[in-house]
Design brief:
Layout: H1 2-48, H2 61-86, H3 92-144
């Protein structure tokens, strides 16, 4: 019996070691899976994110609201106009299908046009703000150092 107890002890010790090896292997797989998902997530967010300091339409509150409004109205207008124009030429199912397709096309076209316009508007707003700040800075510099002459003024 003592031999059996001794023989069983190594088996019991081996079993927990095998379980620990399995448990250690599982977190590695989980860590690899998390690393892959993190890498995938980071790549997508980095691709979407604009470089730091660059203007972003998504961060501009008026642009976001305006683009959403344009998408909705253009999709609705495309749906209604296509549905109205195709009523006399087809069945209701054909008319509905044409109206839905036209609505989707107008939705995407409206979205593209709104983003195109707001990209330019955001840049123009930044330039206008920059000009205001530069003129204020020059006005302050002129008011505080009016008696100084620069190297350009010297004959």
């Amino acid at each position: 019996m003592a031999a059996d107890a001794v023989a069983e002890a190594p088996e019991e010790q081996q079993a927990p070691e095998a379980e620990t090896k399995k448990e250690q292997a599982k977190p590695k797989k989980d860590a690899k899976a998390k690393g892959k998902s993190d890498a995938k997530g980071k790549g997508k967010s980095e691709a979407k994110a604009a470089p730091e300091g660059a203007p972003s339409i998504a961060a501009h509150p008026r642009a976001v609201r305006s683009i959403a409004r344009v998408k909705g109205w253009s999709g609705l207008a495309g749906f209604v106009i296509a549905g109205y124009l195709s009523l006399p030429t087809s069945t209701f199912a054909g008319t509905g299908l044409r109206a839905i397709v036209a609505g989707l096309i107008c939705y995407v076209a409206g979205w593209g046009a709104a983003v195109f316009a707001w990209r330019r508007l955001v840049v123009l707003e930044l330039k206008a703000r920059e000009q205001i700040l530069v003129s204020e800075l020059l006005a302050r510099a002129g008011a505080s150092g009016g008696g100084q002459t620069g190297a350009r003024d010297a004959p």
